[in-house]
Amino acid sequence: MHIVIMGCGRVGSTLAHILEDSGHSVAIIDRDPQAFRRLRAGFRGRRVTGIGFDRDVLEEAGIESAGAYVAVSSGDNSNIISARVARETFGVDNVVARIYDPRRAEVYQRLGIPTVATVRWTADQILRRVLPEGAEPLWRDPTGTVMLAEVAYHSAWIGTRTSTLEDAAGTRVAFVNRMGEALLPRDDTVLQEGDILHVMAAENDMDRINKVLASAPEEESH
After folding, report:
1. Please, what's the b/e burial string for 96-121 (b: 16 or more CB within 10 A of its CB; e: otherwise)?
2. At what angle do helices 118-130 and 102-110 cross, to 10 degrees?
3. Which residues contact 137 (CB under 8 A, 6 or more apart)?
4. A Gene Ontology molecular-function term (predicted)?
5. What is d(CA 99, CA 12) in angstroms, rounded to the nearest whole number?
6. How far is 57 from 206, CA to CA, in rounded Å?
7. Which helix (H) or strand (E) holds 155?
8. What is the Cα–Cα distance from 213 to 54, expressed in whole angstroms?
9. Whole-angstrom Cα distance, residue 148 to residue 141?
10. CB 12 within 8 A of CB 75
11. Of the candidates 143, 15, 141, 142, the residue with the CA atom closest to the CA atom of residue 73
């Protein structure tokens, strides 16, 4: 597949190297020719100097034969404009844009442009390391509505079926990490000591779920 990347910063250059190592052809666009210094000496892809939403620049990068377009420059507006041009003008279906403002990310997601809201993602990664209790977000959908989270639970839940826990907490157990291996729960799966619990839930429901799991299960929940 030919992939066009706008933005030769740390993210863009890293993506370019990974994609090339995976056998894809890559073209990378940046308005600053000095940015291409981040590319390794053996990089075989195209280096295109210019603005990523300029049609001539995109054509020089091979957008007409591209299977994917990635916009990861430092500007939200540039990323979303170029992503829309790639999709709406050149018909590239597989398009993603990096957005620093998560509020904008939600709007653009509704326009059909998949986005990665880096501020929220970075904040989540930090919170996972400083908050030992409660929910630790691992993933959010781009609109911020649904999240996958690692959740702490009261020790009294050990020995309880995950299906019973789901009913009590009103959530979906996505998987259990048991001794370093991911386990997809079945109806008869029972929480064991040391299990790390991951749930999929609406973000605005996480406070309630945390409260339920932080307390011992009620007698009728067993």
Report:
1. bbbbbebebbbebbeeebebbbbebe
2. 130
3. 124, 127, 128, 147, 148, 149
4. potassium ion transmembrane transporter activity
5. 14
6. 45
7. none
8. 52
9. 9
10. no
11. 15
Pair type for strands 196-202 and 172-178? antiparallel
Q: Which residue has the tokens 């064991």?
A: 192
Strand partners, 3: 26, 68
- Do the beta carbons of residue 5 and residue 15 sit within 8 Å? yes
Give dist(CA 3, CA 26) in Å, integer: 5
212 is written with which tokens? 């339920």
In the chain the domains, ranked by start, together with CATH numbers, are 2-122 (3.40.50.720), 133-214 (3.30.70.1450)
Contact assessment for residue 11 and residue 72, using Cβ atoms and an 8 Å cutoff = yes
The token duo for 33 is 């020719």
Q: What is the pLDDT along the chain (222 residues), one digit of tens a residue?
A: 999 999 999 889 999 999 999 899 999 999 999 999 999 999 999 999 999 899 999 999 999 999 999 999 988 889 989 999 999 999 998 888 888 877 777 677 666 777 776 666 656 555 555 554 556 667 777 677 888 888 888 889 999 999 999 999 999 999 998 877 889 999 899 999 888 899 999 988 988 998 999 899 986 444
